[in-house]
Amino acid sequence: MAPLRSPLSRLFTVLLAGVLAGLVLAVAALPGNLLLGFAAKSAFGSYEALPEALRTPATPQRSYLYANDGKTLITTFYDVNRSDVALDEIAPVMRQAIVAAEDRRFYDHGGADLRGLARALVANVTGGGTEQGGSTLTMQYVRNVLKTDPGRTAEERAAATEQTVGRKLQEIRYATALEQRLSKDEILNRYLNIAYFGSGAYGIAAASQRYFAKSPAELTLAEAALLAGLVQSPEAYSPIDGDADAALARRAYVLDSMVETGAISAEQAAQAKAEKLTLHPTAQPNGCTAVAEGHDDWGFFCDYLRRWWLTQPAFGATVQEREQALRRGGYTVVTSLDPQIQATAQQQATDVYGYGNKRALPIAAVEPGTGRVLAMAVNRHYSLDANPDGQANRPNTVNPLISGGDSVDGYQAGSTFKLFTMLAALEAGKPLATGFEAPSRLPTRYADEGEGSCDGRWCPANANPEWMDGYRMMWDGFGRSVNTYFVWLAEQVGPEKVVEMAQRLGITFRADADAAFAEHDAANWGSFTLGVAATTPLDLANAYATVAAEGTYCTPLPVVSVTAPSGERVPVGDPSCRRVLDADVARAATDAARCPVGQQSAYGQCNGGTATSVNRILDGRPVAGKTGSSERNATETFVGFTPQVAVAGMAANPDDPNDFVGAAVQAKVIDAVARVVKTAVDGKPVRDFTAPSRELAGDPQRPR
């Protein structure tokens, strides 16, 4: 903050003059070195007695979010736009300019310049010209720290700028105590990192970027003088938001002061004064709606990261503390977002449905074995901008359409849930070769009086009887997506086991009806295997990633690393994984999942699939997956995975579940997801899936 330049009340200055009158008379004739000693040895206090914030600064800084390359900036979060830099990262002319502008005797006093204070008091009491403050850089630093200290109450922070004799004396006492321990360079560095330069920029790093789009190390003499001049009255002098002519006049004053201090020559000052004011104003992005230009699709991932952050105890005991840590803690966050995979996912999502389409294709990509979220795309702009009448979520929305939450329960995933039935059966000891003569319609034990029931029983049917009916095992039952086979299989192991398996792999029931069914009546939820519960692309991709990782479930993770301003790593970036399936069970499920995508199982039992184009798109690279069509093609889903990535895409209308997307879009969804998988594995070593044991494969001989 600037020195005390705001108009002081006459009463305050008279009182302060009276308190310090004796000091002024006593020291007016003393040499500078004796004056310094007087200040340092006075009863103004010790360094150890200083508030913690002055001894160990906790000044607010913005946090940076980068993509997984550690270089691509996604956005920043801040309440106060500032970021600390070391003194050697600040141009020498900037250091010289701020001293000349604010405290010419900085290197001569001991924290409180009594001569300067005396001059200011005389000028203010007598009304002789412009009002002066007499605050040194050290005193200004004290004031800035105390008024921004997050550890203090709002009342305590406000007291740091009160116009009272007590506050001024405390400021002097704290400043002299600081100078007993810290070097002048340390104090100057701290000051330059906290001073307000106007236009929302706190600290020299933010100011250099805000006004000139450069680092403080690159500042020229003219630029440094301009910035130094802003500190006295940041809003009035700001050439962006205030008075450019006033800023130039103030720049000239600083340059003249630099000549008087010997920092520059008169010729250098004249040349700098002649330079035209050339600004390159840049606005630092703040929050998820201000991601890098042209990448508003990154906002959905950013929002997911922020929601994750608010659940992490490492950043505070409460949600409010964690939010404050994100906006004031100065963290460097390397996220898991892969810009290339994200770009492909976004392109594919918008190729299927445009931004204005009422239907959406949310896509999520997850890394098996770590749970790191690599991409989150949807054909919507992450924006608070208004939408046309009647279009609640298009083309702009900040709702979590990909990850779920708030009012977003998710979408029916159809036959992709057959994976959970197969896993439950394999875990129960039933091999892949478990056979059943699958009929066109299967009367079940579950009561159902609705249309299409069979004598009061739920009676599911195969979508394509000619292609699906007949003797099936898990391989071709999964490959051809035979409803009656999997409903029968779920009956054999118990629907409650299937529901439990889905939950074990991370499927969350956000819809109240689904949650109630799972908790109270899972044993009668026969239709669960057909994907009637709502889920999200992220949950689904991560569940399949668990199978790709041979049974190791990892909690979805949006970060690679989080580093505090001190350089210390915060222990939140490591994957949180646990084994939830026997590896052989996962391998067996994967073997069957080769069938839908047009590849062959290790036991040669694939004989048809619903997504055979995937094999061609992946150029024969080992891949597995599953399609899913909910009843009457209300939604269309595809999940594809390799050992390195799992990707899920779900076509649906987020605002109207009765707007059925239709079967025609299925091929496009399959193609979109497969191309995201291809981008994710391009350039990586080809990894094959491990074949399951003969015991879990069983005897695939069909009965004659």
UniProtKB/TrEMBL annotation:
Alphabetized, the UniProt keywords read: Carboxypeptidase, Cell shape, Cell wall biogenesis/degradation, Glycosyltransferase, Hydrolase, Multifunctional enzyme, Peptidoglycan synthesis, Protease, Transferase
GO cellular component terms, alphabetically, are: outer membrane-bounded periplasmic space
| InterPro entries cross-referenced by the UniProt entry | Beta-lactam/transpept-like, Glyco_trans_51, Glycosyltr_51/Transpeptidase, Lysozyme-like_dom_sf, PBP_transglycosylase, PCN-bd_Tpept
Q: Where is the Penicillin-binding protein transpeptidase domain?
A: 364-669
Task: Tell me the domain of life.
Answer: Bacteria
Q: Catalysed reaction(s)? A: Preferential cleavage: (Ac)2-L-Lys-D-Ala-|-D-Ala. Also transpeptidation of peptidyl-alanyl moieties that are N-acyl substituents of D-alanine; [GlcNAc-(1->4)-Mur2Ac(oyl-L-Ala-gamma-D-Glu-L-Lys-D-Ala-D-Ala)](n)-di-trans,octa-cis-undecaprenyl diphosphate + beta-D-GlcNAc-(1->4)-Mur2Ac(oyl-L-Ala-gamma-D-Glu-L-Lys-D-Ala-D-Ala)-di-trans,octa-cis-undecaprenyl diphosphate = [GlcNAc-(1->4)-Mur2Ac(oyl-L-Ala-gamma-D-Glu-L-Lys-D-Ala-D-Ala)](n+1)-di-trans,octa-cis-undecaprenyl diphosphate + di-trans,octa-cis-undecaprenyl diphosphate + H(+)
A Pfam family that the UniProt record links to this protein: Transpeptidase
**Name of this protein:** Glycosyl transferase
